[in-house]
Structures are given as structure tokens and as C-alpha cells.
Amino acid sequence: xxxxxxxxxxxxxxxxxxxxxxxxxxxxxxxxxxxxxxxxxxxxxxxxxxxxxxxxxxxxxxxxxxxxxxxxxxxxxxxxxxxxxxxxxxxxxxxxxxxxxxxxxxxxxxxxxxxxxxxxxxxxxxxxxxxxxxxxxxxxxxxxxxxxxxxxxxxxxxxxxxxxxxxxxxxxxxxxxxxxxxxxxxxxxxxxxxxxxxxxxxxxxxxxxxxxxxxxxxxxxxxxxxxxxxxxxxxxxxxxxxxxxxxxxxxxxxxxxxxxxxxxxxxxxxxxxxxxxxxxxxxxxxxxxxxxxxxxxxxxxxxxxxxxxxxxxxxxxxxxxxxxxxxxxxxxxxxxxxxxxxxxxxxxxxxxxxxxxxxxxxxxxxxxxxxxxxxxxxxxxxxxxxxxxxxxxxxxxxxxxxxxxxxxxxxxxxxxxxxxxxxxxxxxxxxxxxxxxxxxxxxxxxxxxxxxxxxxxxxxxxxxxxxxxxxxxxxxxxxxxxxxxxxxxxxxxxxxxxxxxxxxxxxxxxxxxxxxxxxxxxxxxxxxxxxxxxxxxxxxxxxxxxxxxxxxxxxxxxxxxxxxxxxxxxxxxxxxxxxxxxxxxxxxxxxxxxxxxxxxxxxxxxxxxxxxxxxxxxxxxxxxxxxxxxxxxxxxxxxx
Amino acid sequence: xxxxxxxxxxxxxxxxxxxxxxxxxxxxxxxxxxxxxxxxxxxxxxxxxxxxxxxxxxxxxxxxxxxxxxxxxxxxxxxxxxxxxxxx
Lengths: 640, 88
What we know:
heterodimer, A: 640 residues, alpha/beta, seven-stranded mixed sheet, 64% helix, B: alpha+beta, six-stranded antiparallel sheet, 41% strand
């Protein structure tokens, strides 16, 4: 028998660690149908049952305020899970009970997991598990997922709930509120599609709270009734909070303090100190990561490639294959990595000896940043400066994710609550934040001249981001949403969890990115083989050579950039080997700015629509022409 | 005991009432900031207030902090010193 289990809960409660403990290495990432929000799915087998376990995006309430929370809710309303497992933080039960009460209204079998019970014990917090079960009418399981504690009990409880099929009753609120809710339920029942009727109570509550998605249910309501609906919503929210408080008073025997704010936390809200602290930490992390990448992610793989791989593959195929197109496509006609352009030489080097080791290091660092609690903290000091360019502090998480891959970054803007913030945060990622693979190439290609040129490139990108953001913020309509954000406690990242995330991300790159990298190398190779490169160079000469003062063959890089920016930067040395440092800076800047990669373009089209995507492309073209021309002018002025 | 805005509080306080629209109120409550709840201001600056509520740390921007009314002073809990609010 198969059963679907959804893990649901606030962000940062250890849901993913629990998910990993339950599913081992079976997890796959997929997008929720019709959306780009990632949902992790894994499998567990227990007592002859196959449990499909889904890790829902974090949500504070069923009243969704962003796309990720909406997906989490849809997993319950549309996904028809057999059991919902709410994961809560044992150190702050009171805050989580509000969501428990909302989930109870759904009428789905529900289990409450109190995770991080180890932290609660250390802080002297004692929870009366049995009393809590009695008060809520649902099973309660204590876990410390990082230690693997309570996992067996949880699986056993899931099986028991599955076999009994017992669902909780909605919480008992004051009778006056219950009566008003019952009346609302009667009004709504016939308007709901049949598949949602079982959730009438929960949807009545959401309607009273002003949920926009179910606004159609109240469209024909007289104005006076609608006003009373808002009153009901307010009373309902306060009554739930009161009930959660009362349950907590009965079940949490002693309350200690589990939170230890650090000096960094105290500094974050102070504008200058916060920015300096956050920026210093980020810079230290970036520089030390790049140093590790240079040694582990580049020097070692390069030695392996030149020492073992190339002699075997090139040596073998040179002798085995006759001269011709196939040989040219596979190993090119010259031995250098950048000049060969063969799929098995340059292509394999890019993927397995250059990008993959670097991504391994970078994803590992990103995983540590996420799990340590540092990433969400960046939102606080950067909130004010980002608001000046039309985004907000919450955009820091998508932007850091976007420094890995802008496809992921644009997906992640779904946590932002206004369209304007999403547009600007996505645009900033297009123009101002090269993806990790591209950054690696930038360091290897431009860093050869001097690290100062790399710093100059970042300064140019930052300036463009700020100026464009200020203009867009002024021109685009839309209001700002205030920032309310939970900062998770500082945690020591779990190696197993970080490694698992890294493996899943690398697998995604191998599956989705590798074909594009190889295709990029193949296209450049064929441009040379067919001689089309010269025609292309002539076609783009007025811009590439005229405005940007670059060799005509850089046009090949621009074609590849549509597929992969990292490859486009990487092949610059092959297509135009004699460029000066300033010319290389111009070329890398232009490749970074002129167009997003195909993957990012498709995601943005899907996320923001054709009109906004076209607007972004027009702005990018203008910026590229202006900045490229300025740099071209400089490289003419200083030809040495 | 006296009332003031959250943006003016230092140290311990109790959330008294909110003047927020319904959706924002629901969000605050679902994150643990319900009226009657005790909170501790960890740090405050021009950008907003960092506070502790039920062993969790929450940042609220200054605009929201101005809309939340708090009680400060002697309302029962004595285990930590309460500093008077600073105005201005």
C-alpha cells in the first residue's frame, strides 16, 4: 500500500533534516505542477507500507502571503495527503500551535512533531506530551532530528494514524465565533467545487481572514456582510491565538530561555554597523571560498586532466579515428583545452574538471550558510539599501541563491510578496550577479591578467545594479510590503545534511546543465568547422569591433552565451587569444550583461510573463551598448 | 505600567494591541506576535526592531513597530530589569 505524507510547518524548524532522516538518499526535487516552487519528495518503507514523503515549503499560516506558502497549502488542499505531519519547534511551541489549530480545521489526519527537543531540554523546557495530545486530540511525537532521535516513533505513529484513518475535529473556539463561522460555512458550501467541500470549515476561516484566492466566494455578499466578515476574521485570529496560549499554559511545564542572541544579531538592526558586519562576513566567506576553489577546485582537477585524462583520451582517439567531422567534434584539431573545442576534451574539461569541482565547493559553502542561519540574517541589514532599489531584505536569499544559478534565484523570488520586488530582484540577478559557474570562469579567464580586473568587473556590475535599480524603483508602480522576518537560531551545520543538499544540487546541474555546456562547446566548434564564425563576426562587427573594440570572433562567445554564460566566458581565450586586459574586461562584461542564459530566460518568462521579460531584455540591451561602448573607448585609449 | 510603541521599547514589554490590517495581523499572530504576548527587545535601530518572543528571534521593520502598542513596566514578570522607553 502507498500513502502520501506531507511534512508541513514554519520555516527553520528542522523540517528538511527530519525529511532527510525519514527518506535517506531517495529524495528528488521537482516543481509543483504549474509552478516553479521546488518540492522535495522521498520515500520510506515501514511495516510493508511505502510512504511517499513530501517536504512542503515553510509556511507560518494557511493564509498564504507568497507563492511558496501557496504551494505548501496546495499540497494539502489539492494533493490529498493521507497524513499531514506538522513539524514544530519544541522550544517555541506556543508560536506553532496557531498553525496546528489551522491544520486541524482541514480535517486531515494530523500528527504534531515537536522537533529540537534536545534544545528544549537543555533550556529546561518541559512539555507534557500526553496532556498536549489530549488538548489537541492528535498524536504528538518528540524528535531531535539532527540526532535521529524519535524517527522510529514517528514512523510508527504515521502507520498507526494511517491504519486508523482518524482525523482531528476542528478546535473549539468561543461559541459566538463558532456560530458565525457555521453560518459562513453554510453560505460557502454550495459555491465550492466538490473536491474542496471537505475543507469548507478551513476555507470559511480563510475567507474571513481575507484570503484573496478565495475572494470569489464572497463576491456576491452584501457590503455590510463583508464588513462583518472582516470583524469575524479579526476575532477568529485573536481567538485562535488565545486558545494556543491556553493550551501552551497547560502543557509547557516550565519555560526556560533557549535563545542566545549573538553580538552579530544585535548589530544587524543598526544600519551602518549591520551593513559593515554583514558585508565583512560575506566578503570573508567569498574570498576564502575562492581560495579553496583555486586549490581544490581547479589546480587538482587540472593536474588530473593533463596528467591522466587527456593523454589517454586524446592519445587513444587520435590513433583510432580517421580525420574528419566526427574526430573534429570529439577532440578538435589542436591539443590545448581552450583551442581544442572538442566535446571529449574542452567539453569534458569544462564540466568535470572545472565547473563540477568548483560547484561542489560553492554548493557546500552555500549549504553551510543556509544551515548555519547566516543567510536569512543578511535580510535585515540589507533591507533598507535594497528598498532604495525597489527590492527588499527578503530578496537577499534569492540573490545569494542566484549567485549559484540565476534559474534557482529567479525561482526563489517567489518568497517575495510584491510583483515589483520580484521583477527588480530577478532583474538584478540577470545583470548584476553572474552564476557560480560563470564566476569561476571569470576568475580563471580575467583573473589571469590581475585580480584587480575581477574586482573592477564586480564594481561595474554593482554600479549598474544600483543605478538601474534606482531608476526602476522610481519608474515602476507598486507599493512596498514591510519586512517581518524570523531569524533562526545559530546552528552548527550537519555535514550529512549539507552533503545531501550539495549532491542533489550537483545532480541537478549534471542533468540540466551538462547538455547545455556540451551543446555550447559543440556550437562554437561547428562555427569554426563550417567557417560561419567569420560571417558572424562580419555581421556583428559594427557593434563588437566598432563599439566595443573587440576582435570579431568574440561574436562566437555571444552566441554561446545564450546557452551557457560560463562556456561563453571560458571560450573567450580560444576565440580571441590576443586580447589586452581591458579588452578582456570589456568582453567579459558584455557577455555577462547582454543576455541571460536560456534556462534563466525560460524561467523568467514563466515567472514574470512576456511583457516584463521583454522589458528586461530591452533594458539589458541598452545597458550593454552603453557600458560596452564606454569600456571599448577606454581600451582604445589605453591599448597596452 | 505604561503604554508606548514597540519602536520605542527597550527590554521587556507586553504586546497590547495592533493597528494593522487583517492579513498583516494574521501574519504577526502566526509568527507569535499576538496581543498579550510578552516580548524582549534585543536591539533596535533605524531599520527596525529585533525582538525575542517565545524563544524565537523576529525582526519587524520600523513601520510595523510603530503600529504595535506595548505595555512596559511592572506587569508581573520580574526576572529581568525593565528599562524605561526612550522617546525621540
